[in-house]
Amino acid sequence: MPDLLIELFSEEIPARMQARAREDLKKRITDGLVEAGLTYASAGAFSTPRRLTLTVQGLSAESPTTHEERKGPRTDAPEKALEGFLRGAGLTKDQLEVRDDKKGQVWFATITRPGRPAADIVAGVLDATIRNFPWPKSMRWGAGSLRWVRPLHSIICLLSDESGAQVVPLEIEGIRAGDTTRGHRFMAPDAFTVTGFDDYAAKLRRARVMLDSAEREAAIRQEAANLAFARGWDIVPDDGLLSEVAGLVEWPVPLMGAIEDRFLTLPPEVLQTSMKEHQKFFSARNPKTGRIEGFVTVANIETPDDGATILAGNQRVLAARLSDAAFFFENDLREAKAGMKAWAEGLKSVTFHNKLGSQADRIARIAALAREIAPLVDADRDQAEEAARLAKLDLRSAMVGEFPELQGIMGRYYALEAGKAPAIADAARDHYSPLGPSDEVPTAPVSVAVALADKIDTLTGFWAIDEKPTGSKDPFALRRAALGVIRLVLGNNCKLSLEKMMMKPVAAHVVGQAVRENAALKYAQLIPHADDLGVRVAALNLEAEALKIAIAQIESAHDDGNLSDRSVSLASDLLTFLHDRLKVHLRDQGIRHDIIDAVLAQPGNDDLVQVVNRATALNDMLQTEDGRNLTQGLKRAGNILAQAEEKDGVEYSFGADEKFAETDQERALFKALDTAEPAIRKAMAQEDFPAAMQAIAALRTPIDAFFEAVQVNTDNQILRRNRLNLLSRIREAGRQIADFTRIEG
Amino acid sequence: MTSPQDDRMAKPVCFQDVILRLQTYWAAQGCAVLQPYDMEVGAGTFHPATTLRSLGARPWAAAYVQPSRRPTDGRYGENPNRLQHYYQYQVIIKPSPPNLQELYLGSLKAIGLDPMIHDVRFVEDDWESPTLGAWGLGWEVWCDGMEVSQFTYFQQVGGHDCKPVSGELTYGLERLAMYVLGIEHVMDMPFNAPDSPIPLSYGDIFRQSEREYSRWNFDQADTKMLFDHFRDAEAECTRILTAAEADGAGRRIPMAHPAYDQCIKASHLFNLLDARGVISVTERQAYIGRVRALAKACADLFVTTDAARADEVAA
C-alpha cells in the first residue's frame, strides 16, 4: 500500500483562501482517485503561505480490472446500428457474441478495462485538479497560459512504499513533478529532496516551516499569551485574525510591544480596529486599567537581534497610524462639540440610493418614523427623534471614513461629546443591531425606536422602488433588515400593528419616488449642459423644491387617510415578506410552519408578539393528546359544515337551541360550549393564550362523544339544522384561536 | 577603500540616494532606465511605458521614476506622509520572469533593507484601475508592518488580456525612503546628502509648492475651464483615434500615443475636478467610465501597431 505526497509550491497564497484550498485539494484528489477505482485509508491537507500539501495514506497500488457487459442491436438490425455500437464499445465485430433475447438474437459485448497503476491515475487526477482548481480568483503569469492563484513554481508528486519512493511522471506547462521543495524563504531557501510525508514534514521543520496551520495558530496563541502574561496583560481573543495571521507566516515569531501613552486616550475600539485592520496586530488589554495598552505582531522570521529591528519598525508604523487616528478623533470631537452641523450638511450630498435620495433624506424619514414608534416602545418622542437625527452623522466623520466598521461606535462618542443624553448616544451605537441572527437585540427604548425606524425605512423604501430580494440575491440585505424588525419586536415584547406602522412610510416612498422621477426627467432634459456648473446647481435646487412638494403631498395624503391602492398593496406584500421571515425564525425555534400558518390566517397577524404567543400556545396544546384529538374534532365539524353549507347554499352560524337536543351527548356539548365560549373570549381578550387553549381543549371530550353518538345529517330537517348550527359554534370557538383547517395531520 | 559589496550594504543617506540605488540596481537587471513621462499623471502606471507597453506580445523591461499628482491628497505640506505631488518608482517586465520576487527582494537589499533582519511579507492585494480598464493580482509588500511596494501581475489592461503577463513593481519613494532613513516627517527628509555644500531637505524643495498647489487644487482651479478642457481632451482623443490610419503620403501611421496623451490629460482633469468637489458621487462613475472608454480605445489601436505586434519580435 503506497502513500502519496503532493506539494504545490507557489508564490504567496492569500491567507483568506488557504483553508478552502486545503479542503478543495483534498476533496478533488481523493474523489478523483476513488472514481478511478483506487481506495485509500486516510488523507490530510495542509497549507502555508507558499504551499498546498496533501498526504494520502494506504493508497491501493493499482485499480482493479473491470468487466462491463453491454447489450447491442439485434443481429438483423441494419449494419449502421451495429457500427455505432462497435464504436461506442471500442471493439470489433469478432469480439462480440450472439445471445438469445426475448425478441430474437442480439449482439452482446463484454468490455474489459484492465486495472491501471496508481501512478498513472494520480498523474491524471493531479493534472485535472491543478487545471480546474476552484480558486476564487486565479491568474496567468509569464508567457504561459496555466492559471493558479499566484505563479506556481514546483510540484512534488511522490508515491512511496517499503521499496522506496517514486516520482509520479507529470508535467504541466513546463513544471515537471519531482521530489524537491524549499524551506523558509529567508531562513532556509535552498532546495532539498524528500522521500515521503514524514520525511517532508520533518525536513520542513528543520528548514523553518511549520506545515500545519493549526500548529501555527496554537503556537501564536500560546506565545502571545506568554508575552502578555509577563506584562500582566491579556490578549483580546480574535479567531478570525488568528487564522489570517497563521496564513501569512511559515514560521511564526510573535513579538510584543506597548502602545505609546499619548495614544491611550483613544477609544479602545479605535486602537483595536486600527491595529487589526492595518497591521494585523493582536490587542493586549491591561486588566487593571481595562485599557488596550499593548500589541502582539507576528513576524515570519527569527533574526540575530531577536526581532528588535522588526519590532521597532512596527512600533513606528503603528505610531504613524495612531497619530492619524488621533488627529481624526480630535478633529471629529471638535466638530461633535460644535453640534455636527457640517456632517448633517455633508450627508445631503451623499447618495443612499439614487431612487431613495440622499443619506440626509433618509435620516429625515427615520427621524419622523422614530417619533411615531417611540410611544409604542415606551421611548420619549423627542429623544427618539433626536437620536435618529444624530445616529448616522458619524458617517461623515473622518474616523468612520477611515474605518467604516466603526460606524455607530464613533457616533456614540461624538453624541456624548456633543452633550447628548446617554440614551441618545447609545442609540447611535445600537441602532444598527441586530445585524445577524446571533447579534444582541437592543433593549433601551430609544435605541429600539431608532433601530426599528431605520429598518422599516429601508424595507419600505426598497419595496416602493421594487428592489425586493429574489432567490439568493439580496444586495440590500433586506432579509436581514426584516429579521431585525422581527427580533426587535419579539425581543422587546412590542405590541404594535406593523402593517399600520409601515403604511405611512410606504406611502411616503411611493409619492417621493414619483416626484423624484419627475424631477429626474427635468434634470435629464438639462443634461446636455450639465457640465455648466450653474445649470447643475439649478437642477439640484429643483430637486430640493420637488422634494418639498412631495413631503407636502405625503402629509396631506396621510391626513385624508387617502393612501393609494399601491401603497396598501405594497404594505401588505411587505407584511407577507415579514411573515415568511418570521416562519423561518420560528422554525429554527421548533415551531412547525403549519401552526404558524394557522395563526397567521387570523386577524391581527401584524402584531408579531401576539402571533408568536398564539403559535407557542397552540404548539404546546398540539403536543398533548387532547390537543391533537380536538384538532380532529374541529376539522370534522368544519368539514361537515362546509359540505352542508355548499349543498344548502346557506351559512349555518346562528340559532342552535338546546331544546331540540335529543341526546345527552348533544346536551353535554351545549353545556360545554356555554362554559368554553365565554372563557375563550375572555382569555383571548386578555391575550392569555394558554388559558384560551385550555378552555378549548376542554371541548375535546364532549365533541368526541357527540360525533360518536349523534348523526348530524338526519332526515329531520329541524334537528339537522339545529345540529349544524351547533357545529358552527364549535367552528366559531376554534376560529377565535386559529385556523385549524391549516393544521396538518 | 570600501568594496562595492560594502557600498551596497551601507545605508543610504538621503532621498536621492535611494532613487539612485534603485536605478543602478534595475539597470543591472537589464531594465531600460527611462525618464519620467512629461505629463501630469496620478501614478507611474499611467506612463505609456507601462500602460501601452504591457499590451501586445513584445518583450519589455523598463524602470523609471514617475512624479505623480493626486490633487485630493494635498495637505498644504503639513501632513507627515501625504502629498499632492510625490514620486513613484516603477518597474515593468514582460513577460514576468519566474524570479521576479527574488529580483524585487534584491532591490530592497540594494537600498539597505536586509530581509534577514527585517520582516518582509507578501500580503494579498489585488490591483484595479477603473480608469485604465486594468486589473491584476499580486500583493502589497510589507516590511516590518509597513507597505513598501505594490507587486502586480497584470491580467488585463485597457480591456485587453495581457499575453504575456507583465510583472509590475511600484515603490512609493517618499514613504520607502523615510522608512530607510528613519525620518518622521517627509519635509524633514534630506534630499541630497546632508554633508553636501548646500544640503537640501525635501521641505526645502517642495514645502512651498505643496502649499500653493493645495490651495489651487482645492479652492482656486477654474472649474469651468477644467470642464472645458476635459471635453476638449476627450474630443481630441476620439478624433485622433478615428482619424484615417494612412497619412497624406499613404503611410500607415495610427496615432495611439498622441491619443493616449489626451486620455491622460482627461484623467488628470477629472482628478482636479474631483479635488474641487464639483463631481457628485453618481457623476464620478460616469466620468471614470468616460476616461476608461478613451483608455480602451487607445489600447485597441496600440495593439495594431508595430510596437505591440509579436511578428516584429521574430524579425
From TrEMBL, chain A:
Protein biosynthesis in keyword set: yes
Reaction(s) the record says it catalyses: tRNA(Gly) + glycine + ATP = glycyl-tRNA(Gly) + AMP + diphosphate
InterPro entries per UniProt: DALR_anticod-bd, Gly-tRNA-synth_bsu, Gly-tRNA-synth_heterodimer
Top EC class, one word: ligase
Compositional bias ranges of the Basic and acidic residues kind: 65-79
GO molecular function, one term: ATP binding
Localisation per UniProt entry: Cytoplasm
Residue span of region Disordered: 58-79
GO cellular component assignments: cytosol
Recorded family membership: Belongs to the class-II aminoacyl-tRNA synthetase family.
The name this protein goes by in its record: Glycine--tRNA ligase beta subunit
Organism: Paracoccus halophilus
UniProtKB/TrEMBL annotation, chain B:
Any one GO biological process: glycyl-tRNA aminoacylation
Gene Ontology CC annotations of this record: cytosol
One protein family per Pfam: tRNA-synt_2e
Catalytic activity: tRNA(Gly) + glycine + ATP = glycyl-tRNA(Gly) + AMP + diphosphate
Location in or out of the cell: Cytoplasm
Class of the enzyme per the UniProt entry, highest EC level: ligase
Keywords annotated in UniProt: Aminoacyl-tRNA synthetase, ATP-binding, Cytoplasm, Ligase, Nucleotide-binding, Protein biosynthesis
EC code: 6.1.1.14
GO molecular function: ATP binding; glycine-tRNA ligase activity
Family membership: Belongs to the class-II aminoacyl-tRNA synthetase family.
Assembly: Tetramer of two alpha and two beta subunits.
PANTHER family per UniProt: GLYCINE--TRNA LIGASE, CHLOROPLASTIC_MITOCHONDRIAL 2, GLYCYL-TRNA SYNTHETASE
Name of this chain's protein: Glycine--tRNA ligase alpha subunit
Source organism per UniProt: Paracoccus halophilus
Lineage: Bacteria, Pseudomonadati, Pseudomonadota, Alphaproteobacteria, Rhodobacterales
